[in-house]
Design brief:
Number of helices: 22
Mean pLDDT: 80
Low-confidence stretches: 211-216
Oligomer: single chain
Distance between the termini: 63 Å
Shape: globular
Strand order of the largest sheet: 3-2-1-4-5
Structural class: alpha/beta
Largest sheet: 5 strands, parallel
């Protein structure tokens, strides 16, 4: 549809100005690439030439003409199109790459058509940067001129946030495709960098290079680079590493990246045997594996973090509803509110009309958006992109009926199976005799697992103890100067199977703290059997500081070395607290208690006692060495910034 706001004269002038700008910056890119390649010694120059080769002028004309013609074909000189196209800048980049490909294959097809591949590469870099920046600046000038001239600039996509705004309004499938394209480009770029950097380190550096340094990549290695990148993209596709729905946290996303790169390295080795080009260096293969893993891992992590921040900035979080009302549904909403990295929010609940009318409390405790009969209409009305079905709330045939209503709608459908305490890593779906079954891995604190956990406790406990000796001395001296009484405080606690032991801490309270506790009971800010008070008057000035950064808990390393505590585990409770436990909460006493744990890195004192207990049970059910290491690593920033401590 032609925009009547722009006259034919304005469109012609605007297209001509863009054409002139492109000619200037493409020519400048050709010259800068030529200058760096032949007028400097960056790329191994032997003799300096002060004249531009006629051949390269001819090559520049071909590549610039190709790009300009493609710009015209794809209407990138039309003011009616370019600033309303979500993929405008992506098209610019693709066409510039296409121009470089055209000149490259022209040289392959025509005799005596030789040029430097470094020159082409440099041109591509300069061209992408200069065209993108120049067109962006011209777009900003356009908006300012239109505003001054009284021409409406509504709907023009110029700024970065204009594009985000339009992206937000796109359908879910278009968002998934766009995100997948970004990941594909990311992988191509960083796999290419990993390939060439590994080649450079292997053959151009004194550390690994043997004999004469090599400045040009051999034909075999160029073949391997093509195989390496293409096969990596295909393997990542098979591992669903370009699908937004399958790269969320907890899905084994990063472990699949490791598997994909490992398989890809094997593909390279097998390609060498099959095509009889097995002449590559094993050191190069090792470097390629490490660099690919590092670059892809870090780049995807950065994309993940940036995407989350941008989604929060423009409020593009997916609209989510829960089908089903009950305790499970409430816990799902609570978990989303506290732990969702994408800042997800449950918009409301859908339930059967008869059930809502029968139980009036549902209308009071839950935000009812509508009834199951109106499910499709509610999804379209509220632009819902994710539906969570609380499976335990429904019978088999009811669940099938709900899924039937969701057929053909572009949304993500998730069914909660009823297991909060099981990690997805423990569960695998299997089919036996046509029946879908969930296989749960049998893990626990026994056998080799228990041995490894004890080794980690004693090894890291010894290292931590020695490392913090200066801190013990400084903290002890400060405590002694600040208030009368002993430096250490011993408190009776329970560990595994409710065995009594005395836990060591630096004293952070006055010596009469236990006696004064009765006076402060009414000011308790925690629920359940534990006592917490943010401005507890029993805490000394030094005590408040060492509590803030958990220095008071450092002596518990002695309990670890004595075998009474573990580095990671549920927090050891007081005997009087255990007396008030419910039956399900007593299960947290089935393992050796620890200095840090899941709830310490998930909010510490900001969590309710029930949440602490559930996190402890989750840890017990899904324990692994990997989980212990992650908790220890996450404990450091939590302690360093004093998050949730008082």
């Amino acid at each position: 549809m032609i925009d009547n706001r722009y006259t034919i004269r304005l469109r012609i002038i605007y297209g001509f100005l863009l054409f002139i700008i492109d000619l200037f910056f493409l020519s400048l890119s050709c010259f800068l690439a030529y200058y760096l390649r032949f007028y400097t010694d960056i790329f191994g120059l032997t003799t300096i030439s002060y004249t531009i080769s006629g051949q390269y002028i001819f090559y520049s004309i071909i590549i610039i003409a190709s790009i300009v013609i493609l710009f015209a074909i794809f209407k990138l000189y039309s003011i009616n199109k370019i600033y309303r196209d979500l993929y405008y800048y992506l098209k610019l980049i693709i066409i510039l790459i296409a121009g470089a490909v055209i000149i490259y294959f022209s040289a392959r097809l025509v005799d005596d058509f030789y040029f430097s591949r470094i020159w082409i590469g440099l041109f591509l870099v300069f061209g992408i940067i200069s065209i993108k920046i120049s067109r962006f600046i011209f777009a900003r000038i356009t908006r300012a001129v239109f505003k001054r001239s009284g021409i409406s600039s509504e709907g023009l996509l110029i700024s970065f946030f204009d594009y985000l705004r339009v992206f937000k309004e796109n359908t879910r499938i278009k968002k998934k495709i766009a995100y997948g394209i970004i990941l594909v480009f990311n992988d191509i770029i960083f796999l290419g960098i990993a390939f060439y950097l590994s080649f450079y380190l292997r053959f151009n550096t004194g550390i690994l290079a043997e004999g004469q340094e090599v400045y040009f990549i051999e034909t075999n290695y160029l073949f391997y680079s093509a195989v390496f990148i293409i096969s990596a993209l295909f393997i990542f596709l098979l591992y669903r590493l370009y699908d937004w729905d399958n790269i969320y946290r907890g899905s084994g996303y990063y472990s699949r990246i490791v598997k994909g790169i490992t398989i890809n390295i094997i593909v390279i080795i097998m390609s060498g045997y099959i095509f009889e080009l097995f002449t590559f260096s094993r050191k190069w293969i090792a470097l390629l594996f490490v660099l690919s893993l590092v670059f892809i891992y870090i780049s995807r992590l950065l994309i993940d973090m940036i995407s989350i921040r941008l989604m929060r900035r423009v409020k593009t979080r997916p609209g989510t509803i829960i089908v089903g009302i009950g305790e499970n549904s409430k816990r799902i909403e609570d978990s989303f509110r506290k732990y969702s990295l994408e800042d997800d929010k449950i918009l409301g609940y859908i339930e059967d009309k008869d059930r809502v009318k029968k139980e009036r409390k549902y209308s009071r405790d839950f935000k009812i958006l509508g009834y199951i009969d109106e499910l499709r209409e509610i999804i379209y009305k509220h632009k819902i992109q994710r539906v969570i079905i609380s499976g335990p709330e429904y019978k088999y045939f009811e669940l099938l009926e709900i899924l039937e209503k969701l057929k053909g709608i572009d949304i993500s459908v998730l069914v909660f199976p009823g297991f909060f305490e099981f990690s997805i890593k423990r569960m695998n779906m299997r089919e036996i005799a046509g029946i879908p079954l969930m296989q749960v891995t049998n893990i626990g604190f026994f056998g080799v697992n228990l041995f490894l956990k004890n080794v980690i406790d004693y090894l890291f406990g010894s290292i931590i103890f020695v490392f913090f000796i200066p801190v013990y001395l400084i903290a002890g001296l400060a405590i002694k100067i600040n208030s009368p009484g002993p430096v250490f405080y011993q408190q009776e606690r329970y560990t595994k199977d409710c065995r009594v032991f005395y836990m060591y801490k630096f004293r952070s309270m006055y010596v009469d703290a236990d006696r004064r506790l009765r006076e402060l009971k009414e000011y308790n800010e925690a629920d359940g059997p534990i006592f917490k008070m943010k401005k507890d008057p029993r805490i000394t000035r030094i005590g408040r500081f060492i509590r803030r950064f958990s220095i008071d808990e450092l002596p518990q390393i002695i309990n670890v070395l004595k075998g009474e505590l573990s580095l990671v585990g549920p927090r050891p409770p007081l005997p009087k607290e255990v007396e008030q436990y419910e039956d399900w909460q007593r299960k947290r006493m089935n393992v050796k208690q620890g200095i840090t744990g899941l709830w310490q890195i998930s909010g510490r004192s900001e969590l309710s006692f029930e949440e602490m207990s559930r996190l402890d049970l989750y840890y017990i059910q899904n324990w692994s060495i990997e989980m212990d290491i992650k908790i220890l690593l996450k404990t450091m920033p939590t302690v360093l910034f004093g998050k949730g401590a008082y």
